[in-house]
Amino acid sequence: MSSTPVAVVTGANKGIGFAIVRALCKQFPGDVYLTARDPGRGQEAVAKLQQEGLQACFHQLDVDDLQSIRALRDFLKEKYGGLNVLVNNAGIAFKVQDTTPFAVQAEVTLKTNFFGTRNVCTELLPLVKPYGRVVNVSSMVSSSALGGCSQPLQQQFRSDTITEEELVQLMTKFVEDTKKGVHAKEGWPNTAYGVSKIGVTVLSRIQARMLNEKRKGDHILLNACCPGWVRTDMAGPKATKSPDEGAETPVYLALLPSDADAPHGQFVSNKTVRPW
Ligand code: NAP
């Protein structure tokens, strides 16, 4: 078993995830895994970094596929006895002009952005080693979507005692409410992406609390963040940040020094803790 530190980035064949891997290859003292759901696109991305003189490793990971997540888990367990850095970056967003019915957009978006991210965490968080760093890439849209929720929903999403099960129930209810055409009446905002990212931010707050309760002595720091508005296939060419600039906050959180005890359980953008 290798004692080399290991970092894993999800959805890293392009966009912000790719830029996070590039930065980690330069700054992280260990093996950096570029993961992608499609091995062809993933290997191509690794080759692109190689042309820049950077050495990334590849492993397949489709966050929608539990078998794929468990295969990565078993690989990390066997080869490294765990992992040191996990960046949950994989995500999707329907374009504004997309005419796919809202209920379908809700189901598909929540599946990857919330349930996929949660499944990766369920399988990989127990493997994170002491002084590990976990970064869940959310979005400022989670804050604006929170503001668009009814007061009772806002209270639940801001609660310091909400459980992961309760959060899963709420995310499931959102999808069901869109299918019944009652999501607005039930207090939800009109954004599937926004609700999925509320899920990611609240999940991060819960997970950090659980780490405090169950693994206090392990000094693991876990945060949600917004990369900013970044020029990728998701956000388009008019966005203000380059992918490398978008990677800055996630990489800052992934490389928090071992003597840091904060931020933890926070929502961070531009390397600054934001109120939730
Ligand atoms: P992007 O260029 O569209 O890249 C998304 C990445 O996620 C791709 O590598 C994609 O793989 C991967 N992915 C999607 N579904 C996946 C799955 N089921 N399993 C594994 N990988 C999957 O988007 P981006 O702008 O870099 O976004 C990265 C993250 O930042 C997302 O979580 C996004 O919500 C967040 N974010 C972006 C912005 C922005 O302005 N760009 C702002 C705030 C937050 P394929 O190539 O196979 O599709």
UniProtKB/TrEMBL annotation:
The keyword NAD does not apply. Its EC number is 1.1.1.184. This is carbonyl reductase (NADPH). Its main location: cytoplasm. InterPro entries: CBR1-like, NAD(P)-bd_dom_sf, Sc_DH/Rdtase_CS, SDR_fam. One of its GO terms (cellular component) is cytoplasm. Belongs to the short-chain dehydrogenases/reductases (SDR) family. It is found in: Cytoplasm. Keywords: Cytoplasm, NADP, Oxidoreductase, Phosphoprotein. It is an enzyme of class 1 (oxidoreductase). GO terms for molecular function: carbonyl reductase (NADPH) activity. The keyword Phosphoprotein applies.
